[in-house]
């Protein structure tokens, strides 16, 4: 519970720095994202979950909140090729955005929190004089569970 409050306090601080408030609707949205941070929710899925806690919230409010959080770098918007934007909360203790493993058989998404591209970033900086500040990487393949089923 302490982790949750720390994250909410950090997000509230970022909103205040941008001249915005953490309204009850935004707090419910952020709290729901935190409780489901590994699920890569779409705006509609998030709305369904938030609505259980905050009856007076509308889908447009969730969309606006996500857009504000995205613009402030608090969430990342990802498309896993299913035609929907999904949102991934950027926790305050993360440097770069984490990577993802996407199973093309079952659709499962796994997170990789190691930064696998540090050497590549250094090469880009040295060769092109371009300093990488962030990156997105999705590995497409077959997860361990599907491989195990396939071998039986």
Can you describe what's shown?
The protein is globular, with a radius of gyration of 18 Å. The chain is α+β, with helices and mostly antiparallel strands and 152 residues long. The protein is built from 6 helices and 6 strands; from the N terminus they run ααβααββββαβα. A hairpin with a 5-residue loop joins strand 4 and strand 5. Helix 1 packs across helix 2 (24-35), helix 2 crosses helix 3 (43-53) and helix 3 packs across helix 4 (59-71).
User: Class by helix and strand content?
Assistant: alpha+beta
Helix-strand pattern, N to C?
HHEHHEEEEHEH
Strand arrangement within the widest β-sheet reads 1-3-2
Mean pLDDT: 87
Output the radius of gyration: 18 Å
Largest sheet: 3 strands, antiparallel
The shape is: globular
Low-confidence stretches: none
Helix content: 40-55%
Counted by DSSP, the helix tally is: 6
What is the count of β-strands? 6
End-to-end C-alpha gap: 42 Å
Beta-strand content? 15-25%
Break the fold down into its secondary structure elements and pairings.
Blueprint: H1 2-17, H2 24-35, E1 41-42, H3 43-53, H4 59-71, E2 75-79, E3 85-89, E4 99-103, E5 109-112, H5 118-128, E6 138-141, H6 144-151
Parallel strand pairs: 4-6
Antiparallel strand pairs: 1-3, 2-3, 4-5
Helix pairs in contact: 1-2, 2-3, 3-4
Defining traits:
3-stranded mixed beta sheet; 6 strands; alpha+beta; 152 residues; 3-stranded antiparallel beta sheet; globular; 16% strand; 47% helix
In short:
With 152 residues, the protein is of the alpha+beta class. 47% of the residues lie in helices and 16% in strands.
């Amino acid at each position: 519970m302490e982790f949750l409050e720390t994250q909410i306090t950090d997000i509230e601080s970022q909103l205040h720095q941008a001249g915005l408030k953490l309204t009850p609707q935004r707090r419910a949205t952020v709290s729901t994202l935190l409780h489901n941070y590994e699920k890569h929710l779409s705006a509609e899925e998030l709305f369904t979950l938030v609505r259980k806690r905050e009856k007076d919230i509308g889908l447009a409010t969730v969309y606006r909140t996500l857009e504000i959080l995205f613009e402030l770098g608090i969430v990342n918007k990802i498309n896993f090729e299913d035609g929907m934007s999904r949102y991934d909360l950027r926790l305050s203790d993360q440097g770069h955005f984490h990577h993802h493993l996407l199973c093309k058989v079952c659709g499962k998404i796994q997170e990789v929190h190691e930064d696998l591209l540090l050497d590549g970033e250094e090469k880009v900086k040295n060769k092109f004089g371009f300093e990488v500040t962030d990156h997105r990487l999705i590995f497409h393949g077959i997860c361990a569970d599907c491989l195990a089923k396939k071998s039986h």
